Prior knowledge:
Elements: H1 2-27, H2 37-50, H3 70-79, H4 86-112, H5 115-130, H6 141-158, H7 162-176, H8 182-196, H9 198-223, H10 225-237, H11 243-257, H12 259-268, H13 282-297, H14 309-331, H15 339-359, H16 362-365, H17 367-372
Amino acid sequence: MLRLLMRSLVLSTSVVVIASFAVTALQHSMDTGSVDPTENAIFDGASRVACGQHLYDESNVSATPAPMPGYPFAFLFASGGHDLHFRQLRALATGIALSLAVVVGAMVQLETGSFTLALASGGFVLLGLDFAPGLPTAARPEVLMLLLVVLGFSILRFTQGIWGVLLAAPLFASAYFVDQHTGWFLAAAFLALGIEDRPRLFVFVLVSGLLLGGGFVFLSLRLGPWFNFNTWDAPLATIYAHPGNALRYVTNHLLGKFSVWVLAALLAFAMPTQPWSGKRGMWMFFVAAAVAACLFSTQTNHLDPWFLVPGMIALALLGPIMVQRVARHLSAGDDPDLPGSEGVIVTALALQFLVLLAAMPISRWLPDLATLGRVRL
Length: 377
């Protein structure tokens, strides 16, 4: 009875979270402007290209590095390349965020065979987006990059032979031209393939290297020297050693908001089967890359909280998978559907939802009251 109650609670909470995200997207779908500088930069860049101007020029150089060209060109392609409006950009961003939640949920479904875990993981993705300041449906390169990277890892995970890496390499290359943090995920994919299958690694390195190198040459010639400035010089100029930021990221974001999933991942290392071995271990490398990217992002004089989103999304994928593996191992039974195992799994889901919802700012739940001053925060 308790197990059924907890499962119902998890499913209903997941549905409410997804519905709330969709309602928020609908409320802001008709906005004519944005206060997010990155979103404004994406829209302005796409508008310049639509008018026949350069995506990068000296006039848009600022202390904040301009976004990579992937998102502006994706927006141009999705909107038809003319008569651009912010509502089109918001619709694209909402579609990307929901697609990321669906893909993560699908991966969890394939790994665990549990619809409850899959639906909950999609809810955790959307909650992770909701922790960044501004709108969770804002157009951000990190979300599109994560969608492409998760698709790339899923192809490497569920395919055999050379054709799988031939499909995954263009996704990683495309993701890099959306957000440079893809380099961490590309390195993790190299390491995972190096442990699992050396011939696939050789082909993957060759194809991805050719695509990245060719892409840089093409974009440098097409977009001019300011492309290289915004790709390399401007981001490198923002790097600044700040150990306190890294410590706060680990304590406030990883342990504070995803403590249940972090504990499940740590317990997985005590299991007889190493969690990074085999094709199933691909997701452990994915999470390691996401955490490394977030830690590196904290070492800057311009820390954007959106840079910390990849770690939350990665744990939303790995956490449900690891908690199921650990719970079934500890249940010490041959039947994978033992009540004790399933009860622990749904309880862990409920606890993780409780931690995240308790950490959510009240202004997310009562935006109108907070805006009007009816609730003092």
